[in-house]
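Same chain as my last thread, 231 residues:
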Amino acid sequence: MAEYRERESQLGRAVVWARTMPARSGPVTVFPDGCMDLIWTEGALMVAGPDNRAFSAAAARAREYVGIRFAPGTAPTLLGIPAVELLNQRVDLAEIAPSRTARELVDRIDNAPDRVAALEAVALRFAADSGPADPALTAVVDSLAAGATIARTAAQTGMSARMLHRRSLFAFGYGPKMLARILRFQRALAALRTGIPAAQIAAVTGYADQAHLSREVRDLAGCSVRTLQKP
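reply #2:
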């Protein structure tokens, strides 16, 4: 059986996690959440870019994964690359950072007694080198996550619609409309997993009706609402 655990990171608005996949395990589906991850697994360090559709990862043999999930909009500044360049991609860190640096970081985590702590230390180092997250982008995420319109979000953050779109591509990998859809989907997903009826969820999470919720789940998660509901 696969094992998964996570905790809040010392890096603000981030989560560190670990997953062990047994041999011949089935695929793991990752749903869009607006986040990017830095992931170590057996001698490799990769960056998981933002997704605008479900991503399926299969493990053909037993593997250990350790990751840090950055809050939406924070990883591009830490890693020095626009999120849009990594949309729906998983790339080796050596494609982004100097290969020698990437190799040294991999070796450090490979040989660490606590790989979660070692990866977290790497992320904290990136954060120290890059400086604090842009509070305007944090405000964009918080506004859209609360269900605000794009126009209101732009006004609250002092951006024009064009500037908001441009900065969203860099920070999130897509425009604010897609980010809003993904954050709304995540609110609905959390409710679905508690067993709340789909019609009620649609009404309280910003969907026009249950059919709208079903279409969005099919588009973003690649499955039906029933598949996501708690048995």
